[in-house]
Design a protein that fits this description.
Blueprint: H1 16-21, H2 24-33, H3 48-74, H4 89-108
Helix pairs in contact: 2-3, 3-4
Length: 109
């Protein structure tokens, strides 16, 4: 049986704590770009391109974690899965929830 990973994965967001562990420097930059933290004297003033780039990476973090669930099943020997984020209890719980959601979607079809 072949598996298709369709948009149902977007129905479940990974825990914020897990997203913060992936590319933490981007999360810190995202927090600094928040309007409430910018000041005219700040030597690093954001540009439209920088804001957009940070937003794309923030979205990528979420999508990467969502997609990792099935990619881990298809390619369990990839070295990336040895990173601590993928053995984090939050990620293991997310895997269970995502697989249940996907199985429920298959059962409905």
């Amino acid at each position: 049986m072949s598996r298709f990973f369709y948009i149902a994965r977007a129905a479940l967001n990974p825990p914020t704590s897990l997203c913060k562990k992936l590319f933490p420097a981007i999360g810190e930059r995202h927090d600094r770009l928040a309007p409430k933290e910018l000041s005219p004297g700040d030597p690093i003033q954001p540009t439209v391109a920088e804001n957009s780039f940070v937003q794309v990476i923030m979205m990528f973090k979420k999508t990467f974690i969502q997609d990792s669930v099935l990619v881990m099943e298809l390619h369990p020997c990839y070295p990336i899965w040895q990173q601590s984020i993928f053995s984090d209890p939050a990620h293991l719980s997310f895997i269970s929830s995502m697989l249940a959601l996907i199985c429920k979607g298959y059962a409905a079809n």
